[in-house]
Amino acid sequence: MLSYLSIFGILLSVILLYFNARKNTSTVYLGIFFLLISLYSLTQYVLFNSKSVYLVGAFFINSGFLAYLIGPMLYWYVRSVITDNSRLRWRDLWHFLPMILFLTASLPHIFLPWSDKMEVASKLIDNPAFITEYKGSIFYGMFPAISIFMSRPILVLGYTLWSAGFYMRHILRNKELLILSHQLFMKKWVSVLLGSVFIWVFSHTLLIVETYIYRNMSILFTLNILQILSGTGLAGLLISPFFFPTVLYGLPQISKSGLSTSTEAQEQELLPGEVRIKPPTFESEYLCSIGCKADACMKEFQPYLQPDLSQAQFSAMIKIPVHHLAYYYREEKKQSFNEYRNQWRLNHAKMLIQDGKANELTLEAIGLLSGFSSRNTFFIAFKKAEGMTPGTFASQFTV
Predict the structure, then answer these.
(1) Contact assessment for residue 106 and residue 64, using Cβ atoms and an 8 Å cutoff
(2) Which of 73, 125, 260, 273 is the most exposed place for a label (fewest CB within 10 A)?
(3) DSSP code of 142?
(4) Are residues 180 and 296 in the same domain?
(5) pLDDT digit string (tens) for 219-235?
(6) Do 206 and 313 have their domain in common?
(7) Which spans in the chain are helix H?
(8) How confident is the model at residue 178 (pLDDT cuts 50, 70, 90)?
(9) Within-domain flag for 255
(10) 3-state class of 233 per DSSP?
């Protein structure tokens, strides 16, 4: 089961990174987190269950340093979705220190000839307890082997508790910060994520304690309560994104002024016969504000007249994160940004035609003046939207 969960987690991380790497940095942290935790679990399976000399030789110690990034990726993801700011700061570089130290200390084993690694792998397969005797890292001469094995899950556990504390501080300061107001959906997701990680890493830590401190290697090869809890936590962690698909688009936020305006409108005295309407959810207010900003910008500044206007450029103009903008058009407008932009271009072209410009200019020139990059794109978009060619439409207004 552990091998299947690990492979599933790797595939999930690849999907997250492939579809979101360029538009949602916070999801990149989540994708890398799933990738690292899946590689760590796959390594555990390979070392104690695979019985493959080649796999054990490839995974043993060589990939161990990556596990020290599991905790930082979790923390950066939780921080970015709560604050809606996914940028790393210079002081965040210290989170890489444990990984760098372990990687440096493991270099003697990493650069061993492949034949020597095969010999180590064979001894480990014949006697799993050999893992506590082999000095594959400089640290093994400085610290007990158990402390090195424990350092990875304990570090993840520490980051999980740190992330939970960061999350709870925002919940407790909710009224003051107005960040997580009405965000029940995101609250559930973060709670499920942190809860699943805690169950997995806590039970996994107890497994290591039982295995190496109490010298009970058999616990790794038998079904027991710790194995069940560890597998349940890992399974819940990897499956949970499918129950919260919109977390892939970040945490929407709205300015304090925008919220106060909405609140004031709701608190106005009702006129006779009026019924108080339930305030919209935070997501609805935010998505509505995106539409209002987008339409206002298009109407006032006419950026659609620029042939090379992209979603990223428009996002910078209206100061809305590009992945929020993409989510708005896809989920709310049920269209792409290009289709939305072309609507404004077509309306501009129709206005020019209705004003008689078709008597002075060619239809191709009208399309170019409306922001289309070529005659073909103008004619294709016009026919698709209006059900007729620009020429047929223009014939109604030419003399």
Answers:
(1) yes
(2) 273
(3) T
(4) no
(5) 555 667 877 888 888 88
(6) no
(7) 2-20, 25-45, 53-59, 70-83, 97-110, 114-126, 145-172, 174-177, 184-208, 225-239, 256-267, 282-301, 311-318, 322-327, 337-354, 363-369, 375-386, 390-394
(8) very low
(9) no
(10) helix
**Distant-in-sequence contacts of 332-335, Cβ < 8 A, 24+ apart:** 332/287, 332/291, 333/291
Q: How many domains does the chain have?
A: 2
Burial class (CB in 10 A: 0-12, 13-18, 19+), 181: middle
What is the pLDDT, as a whole number, of residue 7? 86
Average pLDDT over residues 149-158: 90
Q: How far apart are CA 118 and CA 164, in angstroms?
A: 42
Q: At 264, is the pLDDT very low, low, confident or very high (cuts 50, 70, 90)? A: very low
* Average pLDDT estimate for 274-283: 46
pLDDT at residue 68, as a whole number: 93
Same domain, 303 and 180: no
What pLDDT shows up at residue 236? 85
- The reply to whether 30 falls in a domain is yes
pLDDT given for residue 320 in this prediction: 82
Q: For tokens 């999930």, what's the residue?
A: 12
Is 259 inside any structural domain? no
CB within 8 Å of 141: residues ≥ 6 apart: 135
